[in-house]
Structures are given as C-alpha cells and as structure tokens.
Amino acid sequence: MMDRVFYTKGHGTSNDFVILPDPDGELELTPALVAALCDRRRGIGGDGVLRVVRAAKHPSSVELAADAEWFMDYWNSDGSIAEMCGNGVRVFARYLVENGLATPGPAGLPVATRAGIMHAVVQGDIISVRMTTPRVYAASTATVGALTVPGIAVDCGNPHLVCGLHDGVALGGLDLTTAPVVDKALFGAGVNVEFVEPAGDLEGRDRHVTMRVHERGSGETMSCGTGALAVGAVALREAGLTSGSVAVDVLGGRLVITCDDEGAWWLAGPAVLVASGEVDVAALAL
Q: Is pLDDT at 112 greater than 80 in this prediction?
C-alpha cells in the first residue's frame, strides 16, 4: 500500500470528485481506499473517484488507446465501479486541460470510459461532452416510502430510471436518504433513479425541468450528468421532438441536454477544480 497519494478535488454542478493522477496505472486502488477517500468526515469527501490513467496502461481501456490517450477510471463513493459519469467526464477534461495533459482540438478532447469514448469541448467555464445516445427501453416503477411512481428505463451507457411526478407530489418532499425500491429483475446491477417535475418556460430551451437523483453506489447526489441526459431524452420524447434542448435544474445548478439535428447528444455545464493536496493513506479509516 502506498504511503501518500496526491489528489485534486473538483466538481460539476456540485457533483464532486476526488481526482487521482496515475498516468502509468501504478496506484493500488481498492474499494476500501476509494470509500475512505470519499468519506466526507474522515477523508476528502466526494461522490466518487476519478483516476487519471493513460488508456494504454489500464486493462479496461487498452483497446481504446488508439483513439484516446486518457482513460477515466471512475469509482462510486462506496468503492464500486461504474461504467460512466457525465459530470465526471467534464471534470476529468477540465483536469487534463488545466494540468497540460491534453489540448482540446476542434472535434473535442477524447476521453476513454467504460462506456466508450466521449468527446469534451471546452468553452471557458462551460464544458460540453458528446454522450452516448440514450436508449429508452422499458417501463417500470420506483417506490419511495409509501409512494410508487411510474418510470421509464433509459440506458446512457449506465442504467437509469426516469420517474415523472404527478398528482401534486412535491419533488422536495421525497425522502431519498435510502435507495428507492426498483424491479431487481430489470435492474440486476442496480440503477440510478431520477425524479422529475416540470419547471417554468425558459427562453431558448424546448423543455425545462427540475430533477433529484439517487445514484447507485453514492446515494442522493447534488447532480448527475448521465441522469440529466436520461431526463432530457425522456422530456424530448414525451414532447414528440427528435431534436432540441432541455434545461435540467439539479440541486447543484443547471445542466443543459441537447440533441442536435445530426442526432448527437450533448451534456453541458460548468466544471471546476477547487483544491489539490496530498493524503496520508495510513490516516484514513480503511
């Protein structure tokens, strides 16, 4: 086990991450270490860990190395591994650019993930990522306390269940301190559950909604990029639109989902780095 680990802390709309530079894949990263780093009282605190490793140096991304130099090795805060994190990609791209590890070109900066290669476009404070095309594939439900809400399953490279609230149910009144109960036969590997209510009209956007999310492996988070993508896909689908733009307000700010005229899906929002330092691994509660 290493004695000390260098890190950077960053977030996208308050979806926060511990970023670990590990270009050559030498860190002994374990579920226990990830959970300890993400502990908000005894560690650094975060919704997950982003390990920055060259694609050619990680077994999960070797086949992608010809098209992307860097692999985002994403771990949830409980130490489990996830396929994809939309806000994570945006924060990851910010880290690469600000540390001189990559220069974004006209087509964007390629980032390898377990869900494939994403392309990030840096425009000042805003980073947009071309995402995997979301696939709506089933109807299901989520139960919170005594409330059962119908939902739509969406694959965004990772699984989501988008549940629209109706009949006067208030989004702010939901208790998401525990995971919603879902159909385990449909979501055998777990699922991120988004609860959504409409918001007022917003100039320049086809739809405007507010969202809360319970992420598998992390609990309720302030924001979820792939969750916003799933919500945007359902919102445009329900409006009968094949392209358009959806503003998704999360607890940590606003994300914008766009499906352009060529069928490409984009997630846009701010991404910032707030601190860097060194962790004494022996002092963590492993």
A: yes
